[in-house]
Structures are given as structure tokens and as C-alpha cells.
Design brief:
Blueprint (H helix, E strand, L loop, with lengths): L4 E4 L3 E4 L2 E2 L6 E2 L6 H8 L7 E4 L6 E4 L9 H14 L1 E4 L6 H9 L19 E6 L21 E10 L7 E5 H7 L2 H7 L3 E4 L2 H4 L5 H10 L3 E4 L1 E3 L6 E3 L6 E4 L4 H12 L8 E4 L6 E5 L3 E5 L8 E9 L6
Parallel strand pairs: 6-7
Antiparallel strand pairs: 1-2, 3-4, 5-6, 7-17, 8-19, 9-17, 9-19, 10-16, 10-18, 11-12, 11-15, 13-14
Length: 317
């Protein structure tokens, strides 16, 4: 196996990835992330400090108290930071359900999830309580609620109780994932849509009558495989195995093979950042720019999280 390189007057050469013989797997430096990594490293902020924790995504924010009513200028700068880093982490933020919802609402209208009802006095707050009796099934890469016509713009997740070991959440940069795919694949998927369906994840929770009722309220919806972010204008992959059932106009198996191949772009650790939770840690992610994966490696221990999600615009090319 040899390393293919191209000449670079400054560095001498730029290494490329190479395909391992006999497998659709590539190895080598992820040079396409260098510019974004270095750009993020130069950012500075007026109202808080941000420590970059991933190559192209993730920053730990300090010098800010989410339990208070923050000034509009701080909210505006946090919104900008979210678009830059794609996911923000805050430590030692003992949010009450009321303050959690109030903070999330500063960024837009909040959704009420039809399949995961709130068990707090805040209908917009979803509680994920896992234990020996309730397993965690969020360990698959996904964007949240892509089966909605207007999926989440973002989500604010607060750790209430976490296991001593395990239960981390991983985030994958879907801008970087798009940049990683080859030009022929980009051309192939540019105008294709995936059909997203709630029944893939939530259908088993419902009987036939309930399923038909929810189908009437939430019919399957098509979203582009490649979307243009409504704020940044950057292209990103927008497809996941949890909710994407098929590719519109394509044979079912061929379409699912394509979906699977695109989803594999999220698998590379070079596109990821990993959050080790502590009690009262908060994560705020851009649900368009990243996918996430909750590691289910803590059973039978307890993990309790609460989430408020902000409604976004309909994804578009």
C-alpha cells in the first residue's frame, strides 16, 4: 500500500487517503478538515470563553450561567457560536425544568414530541430515564425527528444523573462528512431525496389503530440527501438509518445501500467529538450540522437526561 500525494509548494506534499486492498475502507490523513480546524482555532468571543475540543466541531463554553436570564447580546453570540462549532458544552449548570425550557426558548419555538411525552411540568421537556428496566436505544447515528416536515433546528440536553462509567454522547460533523465523499457520489446524490418515516423507530410502540392515527398526523416526508444550511449556507449530509426508510424514486434495496454508504461518513472519528457527561453538564447542538450517538454501554446503571428541542425550518437544497 502506498501513499498518494500531490505537490504543495509550502509543505512539499499533501498526503491523501488510500483505499485498503479488498475493502471499501480508506486510510490516511483527513486533510479536508484542516482549514475548518484552523479557522475555529482563531475565533474569540466577547461574552464567554470557548475551548475548542474537536477538530471541526465542539467547544466547551465557560464564563456563563445558563440558570440566569441572559442578555440578548449573549444569546446572539451563543447562537453564532453554535453555528461555528456545531455543538456547545457547558459544565456545572444546575438547570431546573423551567430554566431549561426558558433558555431553549430564547432560540426559537419549542417542539412537543408526540411519542416521548414529558414527565415534568414542562410539556416541551422530554425526559430520558434509563435503568435496569429501561434500556437505551439511542446508540445509532441520527439527526432528531427527521420524520417531521420541520425537524429540530437544535436541542439542549441536560444531564440529571449519569453513570460513573459510560453513557457518553458522540457528535459527528455532517459538513465534514459531505466534504469527505468523492465527487462522483456528490453528483449522484445532489438531487435525490430520502423518505423519512417515524414508524421505523416508534412504530413498535403503537398498536394498529394508534399507528394509523399517528400516520395521519405525521405522514412520511421527503428531505434532500444533501441540504444547504439555512444560516451558514454550507452543504451537509442529511440522512440517517434510524428514520430514513428509502430513497425517493430508487429501488428499495439500492436506496438503502446508498443511505448506508452515506451514513458511514459519520463513522470516522476524525469527524467526531465525544462528550463525557457529568451531572449538570449541558450540550446544545445544531441538529442540521451534526448527527449524534448516545453510547449504550452503562446498563444496568441509571442515566437520566432532559431535552428541549427547537423547531427548525424545512430542510432544503
Amino acid at each position: 500500500m502506498s501513499v498518494i500525494a500531490e505537490k504543495d509548494p509550502a509543505a512539499g506534499f499533501t498526503p491523501r487517503t488510500v483505499q485498503l486492498p479488498g475493502y471499501p475502507v480508506r486510510s490516511g490523513p483527513f486533510t479536508h478538515i484542516a482549514a475548518e480546524r484552523d479557522r475555529l482555532a482563531q475565533l474569540s468571543w466577547q461574552h464567554f470563553d470557548a475551548r475548542q475540543v474537536g477538530a471541526t466541531l465542539g467547544a466547551e463554553i465557560s464564563g456563563i450561567d445558563l440558570t440566569t436570564e441572559l442578555p440578548n447580546a449573549v444569546i446572539a453570540e451563543l447562537r453564532q457560536a453554535l453555528h461555528e462549532y456545531k455543538v456547545l458544552f457547558f459544565r456545572d449548570q444546575p438547570l431546573t425544568p423551567q430554566r431549561h425550557v426558558a433558555f431553549a426558548r430564547r432560540f426559537g419555538t419549542l417542539e412537543v414530541h408526540p411519542f416521548i411525552p414529558s414527565n415534568t411540568d414542562q410539556p416541551e421537556l422530554v425526559r430520558f430515564e434509563k435503568s435496569a428496566q429501561v434500556g437505551g436505544f439511542e446508540n445509532a447515528w441520527h439527526h432528531d425527528v427527521t420524520w417531521r416536515e420541520q425537524p429540530s433546528m437544535g436541542a439542549v440536553l441536560h444531564a440529571i444523573s449519569v453513570p460513573a462509567i459510560g453513557g457518553d454522547t458522540l457528535f459527528a460533523d455532517m459538513y465534514a462528512a459531505y466534504d469527505a465523499i468523492d465527487e462522483d457520489t456528490r453528483a449522484r446524490i445532489e438531487n435525490l431525496d430520502a423518505v423519512h418515516d417515524f414508524t421505523r423507530a416508534f412504530g413498535h410502540m403503537l398498536n394498529d389503530e394508534q399507528r394509523e392515527k399517528m400516520r395521519a398526523e405525521h405522514p412520511a416526508v421527503a428531505h434532500p440527501l444533501v441540504c444547504t444550511h439555512a444560516v451558514t449556507g454550507r452543504k451537509h449530509l442529511y440522512v440517517n438509518r434510524v428514520f430514513a426508510d428509502r430513497v425517493h424514486g430508487m429501488d428499495l434495496e439500492e436506496g438503502r445501500d446508498l443511505i448506508d454508504r452515506l451514513c458511514r461518513a459519520a463513522d470516522a472519528p476524525e469527524h467526531q467529538v465525544r462528550l463525557r457527561w457529568e451531572p449538570d453538564t449541558v450540550a446544545f447542538w445544531d441538529n442540521r450540522a451534526v448527527q449524534h450517538y448516545a453510547a449504550s454501554d452503562y446498563w444496568p446503571h441509571v442515566r437520566i437526561m432532559e431535552r428541549a428541542s427547537i423547531v427548525g425550518p424545512r430542510p432544503a437544497r
